[in-house]
Specification:
Chain B: InterPro entries: CPA3_Na-H_Antiporter_A, MrpA_C/MbhD, MrpA_C/MbhE, ND/Mrp_TM, Proton_antipo_N. The complex is a heterodimer of chains A (144) and B (780). By secondary structure, chain A is mostly helical. Chain A is built from six helices and two strands. Chain B starts with a helix and ends with a helix. In chain B, the strands form two sheets. A two-stranded antiparallel sheet of chain B has the order 1-4. A two-stranded antiparallel sheet of chain B has the order 2-3. The chains are: A mainly alpha (144), B mainly alpha (780).
Chain lengths: 144, 780
Amino acid sequence: MVRSGTLILNAAARLLLPLQLLFSLFLLLRGHDEPGGGFIAGLVAAGGFALYLFALGRRALSEMLKVSPRDLVAIGLLLGVVSMLPAWWVGEPFFTAQWWTIPVIDFKASTPLIFDIGVYLVVVGSVLTAITALVKTDQEDDAR
Amino acid sequence: MQLAVLGGFVVAGLAPLLHHWFGARTPLVMALLPASLAAWLLGQWPAVASGEVLLLEWAWVPGLDITLTFLIDGLAWLFAMLITVIGALVLVYSGEYLRGHRDLPRFLVVITAFMMSMLGLVLADNLVTLFVFWELTSITSYLLIGFNHTDLAARKAALQGLFVTVGGGLALLAGFSMLAVAGDSWSLAELTGRGELLREHALYTPLLVCVLLGAFTKSAQFPFHFWLPNAMAAPTPVSAYLHSATMVKAGVYLLARLHPALGGTDGWMITLSLVGALTMATGAFLAIQHTNVKKLLAYSTVMALGTLTMLLGIGTEGAMVAFVAFLLAHSLYKGALFMVAGILDHETGTKDVTAMGGLRRVMPLTAVVAGLAALSLAGLPPLLGFVGKELMFESVLEASAWRPLILLLAFMAAFLTLAVAAIVALRPFFGAPRETPRAPHEAPHAMLAGPALLAVLSLSFGLAPGLLDPLVGATVAGIGVGARESHGAVHLALWHGVNLPLLLSLASLLLGLLAYRHWDRLRALLARLEPLMARGPEAGYEALMAGMVAVAGWQTRMLQNGQLRNYLVMTLLVLVGLVGHALFFRHTLALDFSLAVYLHEAVVAGLMVAGALAACVMRSRLAAVAALGIMGFSIALTFVLFSAPDLAITQLLVETLTVILLVLVLFRLPRFATLSTPIERLRDLAVASLTGGLITLLMLSVLAGERLPRISDYMVENSQPLGHGHNIVNVILVDFRALDTLGEMFVLALAAIGVYAMLRFHAEAYDARRHATPPERDDG
């Protein structure tokens, strides 16, 4: 049921995915000051991938993603844990936020941002894990 | 020292690597670790002997007042010395006993880890540290009893030992917590100085009960003695080390250590001396029913542990001297005897003493060692065991409570132990030679060295007990009985003159020899008691375990029956109960019914209600989902109306994803069915109304007044200056409450993995079934 995308859906998915990903990144980065943030951005990105999956199938998605969604979850958790370490390095209590300014582009990097990226990856990874697992069994059922 | 102990764990972990380099010589290499620790301890002897208490400070978790400080006084020194010296000997011995065994590296890892845990236990000054090491010894003991993990009996015995000791450990943790509260310190060095405060404290009785439970289970006191003989499923070096010389003495050590803090009250004295005497008699009585040499020795260990507890209970200075002498004597002879038992098993292939005979011709050296050690066990001169037994009788005559009963039990234990000693030392080595499963040879040197050294020590300390005076004095000072100045006044002697203890010894010798001569008949007689024995404490343990499993099964069927509706009902009822209790009993209800609603707000709320109602009455799944969707979007709309854009976006996205997930699962679900009876639907209605009503009340009462200072004010004020962000929701999520978010990330990840695993393995099982059913097609 999922493989048979129509031409319009296929084309739309291909065109929309980059836009949705760009939008999700935008939401992720502005999240600290404007509505947005890792959770919302992750949901947007997952929605984009889900559309792509419906249009072109699971194999096309995994070929494009290159990494398994479960690995995304793992990387996200790792980033979440890593983001609390810099505070230890400067001798402050566990999880104290650290802020640095990257000189040339005047971008404010921080451990909360790293943490938010972790949230983003966990959300994308979790949703995709669930959806691809469901689709996978669907296709196996169809094959029989 | 702390570094040495912690490093010892690292060395334990390196054992497989060492085994790769040194092969069969690895145990010898690893024996260097306890040997060098023993040498270091020996270097501290002058200070310890002069009555000094060494405190090696080391902060561990300063915020919680947990330290890794080690305390070395006479008591700790004696135990540490026994652990390291016997540990080194056992490692050398096990190299030969387990030569070529596939799992030798694993054995070395665990036994070295045990050694370090035990050392940490007797040296620790902090209660928490002591407890951590205490539990570590239980766990390593579990791994060692179950060393032959393919054997069901070994696994069962290991689990039994673990449950009993760890169950006691749980009580001990409670006892320690109360002790720390009552004494206002976690440090043993400080607590032992506050005995009067502790004994007067209201918590004294409960904390004593908990601490004693911990110590009694660990040291296999009646009625918890049954796990120790079962633990003999372990390889013999383990039995020699853990289950006679060291671990089972941890409970006794703890009692001795806490004696100045808790001892001296009637409760302490009566409990300890009665339980100890009972254990002593039970152990000796059960011992002579067995023909398995390891079981014989195990029950006599139970007897010895009972003796030690009883002596602590009597509590006079003479009893403490007897305690130390008996402890040392027992560690020496029992270690030696267990290693001899291992040699017999190794050489003849059987553990049954009635199947052996005449071995003194083929194994003369082993016979001599066994004889010496058994003489000490029997308490005959000129060995250290005799000194210990005489002192024990002397102390029993000093006992203040229940003297006749304790004396009777002690006498019974003494003569039965003598019979056990005779059985172990005479049965295998004398009489006519017998066919054994393996043709016996003299044991290799590495296996004989340990028991021989221990037996010779028993003999020389017995001939010159004066050598032990300073050690016994320092240890008794560590237990804190008698004034510090009096130490050095302790004199051990082999010959006390003709007195009551000597007469008791003589009588027990005669009775014991009689029991040995008629052992076979005695055993047949005792075998008739079997049905009574089967109702002992072990049956209680079995019943308890079976009951626990039954209750677990019942409550799993009740709570986790696989029906989502039941889970929901349970969760909601708990929510209603807890929130309702807090709302009605902790606060006074003040409701605010002033309704000032705009029309568009009322419309949105009406949509929500309509969606919920529709979802309940719809007869088609798709329609119900659509109705729920209406509700979801109305909620998002509410967020927009009350200017919470973040929440609104999230709600919308979640609704969208729900649609995606539903598209995926909708076709796989069975037809829409009504699964509940009308009564169940009424129950569900009641639960739903309760929940809804309560939450409404909660909302109204929250609106009615400012009960608590608003935490959101803090967030609003500090979001920019502290969190460098204008979006308060996000700052809370990733900065103020980042730890919570991290926890939620893990929950989300777990949920995803759960979904994956469930679908994946379900599909695989389905596959397997499909491929199994039509085999003809493959052939065709």
